[in-house]
Amino acid sequence: MKIAVCSYDANHNTKSIDQKLKDKLINAGMILDNYHPDIVISIGGDGTLLSAFHKYKERINDIKFLGIHTGHLGFYTDWRSENINELVDYLVNNDVSDISYPLVSANVTYAEGQKKDNFLALNEISIKKENKTLICDVYINGELFERFRGDGLCISTPTGSTGYNKSLGGAVISPTLDVFQLAEIASINNQVYRTLGASIILDKLTQVKISMLSPDSISFNSDQQLIFEKPISQVSFSLSDKRIHFLDYSKDSFISRVKNSFIGKIQ
Ligand code: NAP
Fold it and tell me: What does UniProt list as catalytic (predicted)?
């Protein structure tokens, strides 16, 4: 089994966990391979796993991910750093099953006419305008749904629903559902401008197209990474036919993670 270990945090604790894990994996007969891994282990938080996803997204169908958290339990990180021995045994045992979650895919058309397809996001893609209010037409399955005016739009996956989407007032979605969510970022709603004013959850057969009225200064962010700054005239979104696969280990249900992260103990 070929394994890549990803930790981007320069902190001493993370470095020492990284080294300990690599030593134990090698002693257990595993091969460390950053180029063609079967399994990618991230050490850090959900942000670290997002970076690992982007590093390996071209081979997403061939890889299984696993996250070790060095701080709080995350949505993508369910192993504790104290449990490295148990983790290595789990991998050596080879009896590992996996669970997969949906990804969002975007196809971009530039103002000059070229197209670029299949931008993948694990949490979300957001579209904003850097200098002014974003004005765009939102089509759902080819039908003009609304003319949006505001800061931007956020299209999130079920696992990303607890990230940026939640701060925008979007719903938290069970990650086993094959859906995606379109949430507004500070829409203008008054007697002249009108949008739905709520997030909308769409199924895997649905396509959302966002057509810009003015293509300059559009910022396109995938999991908060700015992808490009060329003028964009249109972006289409749907659920990708690719999915992210995790080694299925978690002892905590999705609902208990949501509760632990956002609510905590009830007095
Ligand atoms: P980051 O520092 O990597 O992440 C910002 C925070 O969001 C961290 O606390 C991170 O958890 C948490 N997070 C990431 N994915 C999450 C998920 N699926 N559910 C719940 N919490 C999640 O910042 P970044 O690189 O700028 O952005 C990465 C992601 O963070 C984005 O994709 C976005 O979803 C989220 N984010 C949210 C807001 C917001 O709510 N206003 C702002 C910025 C970013 P860890 O501490 O475990 O890494």
Answer: 46 (proton acceptor)
